[in-house]
Amino acid sequence: MLLHLRSVEGGAAFQTLITIAKIIPFTIVIGLGIFWFKAENFAAPTTTAIGATGSFMALLAGISATSWSYTGMASICYMTGEIKNPGKTMPRALIGSCLLVLVLYTLLALVISGLMPFDKLANSETPISDALTWIPALGSTAGIFVAITAMIVILGSLSSCVMYQPRLEYAMAKDNLFFKCFGHVHPKYNTPDVSIILQGALGIFFIFVSDLTSLLGYFTLVMCFKNTLTFGSIIWCRKRDDYKPLWRTPAFGLMTTLAIASSLILVASTFVWAPIPGLICAVIVIATGLPAYAFWAKRSRQLNALS
């Protein structure tokens, strides 16, 4: 947090470094795993094995429970105001990073599936660690390798959250849609210092007052609902004469409809697995957040009219 508080450039450099550090373990596993890949392990599992994994609703619940890990895809847009030539840079960054992650995770899944027999892989509580033990170069150190990789990935995720999320509160404050203090910029470091510090303090507070599963349910429901509203706002914005974005999504009608539908499905799926306390908190936040936004929006219009 201190790094991102002191320098935008320093935070960006660290994020680039930690991203490279995250990619290296993937390339090592994929590169080594190819030599120990066995086609018979990759054979299609039996119908019984597939049926044992659960129903279609269980699949949707699993997707919902892991959807938080994809929030960085859209959240990177919060940094648009601090990026040179965002009209070209942002589409390239979004599409390029999406393709890179898709390729890495697809290759990793293929390699893991080919290293270890399917029945053992399906029954393993630590499938990646167990699969990597089948690579002689890693062997008994596979667990340590995976643990170190996990720490690097978590560190990178936390760093990115500290970097981009405060920009949202900062922008809202600048638009008179949130508390004015969140729009404060450090006079020396030129960073949204108050927003960064308060968000970090809030994150620490939640860790101590709740358990991880409840927090995950709370975050997922709010995030999916927010995504639904965000995707829907595109339709409203397209009808405005003053809406002149730097990038227009091709076939936006179809893409927006699919995005809204998938987000609503994830909202419903969250109720399958998330703990009740977390869901209750999420519903309260949504129910109070909407009128709060209406209040701030009205206040913003009044301030703009006076100015």
Automatic annotation (TrEMBL):
Which residue ranges traverse the bilayer?
12-36, 56-81, 93-118, 138-164, 189-209, 215-237, 249-268, 274-296
> Which Pfam family, any one, appears in the UniProt record?
AA_permease_2
* Oxidoreductase found in the keyword field: no
The protein's UniProt keywords, in alphabetical order, are:
Cell membrane, Membrane, Transmembrane, Transmembrane helix
Q: Which InterPro entries match?
A: AA/rel_permease1 (IPR002293), APC_superfamily (IPR050367)
Q: Report the membrane topology from the UniProt record.
A: Multi-pass membrane protein
* One example GO MF annotation: transmembrane transporter activity
| A GO cellular-component term linked to this record | plasma membrane
Q: Which domain of life is it from?
A: Bacteria
Q: Localized where?
A: Cell membrane
Listed name of the protein = Fructoselysine transporter
Q: What species was this sequence derived from?
A: Escherichia coli
What's the gene?
frlA_1
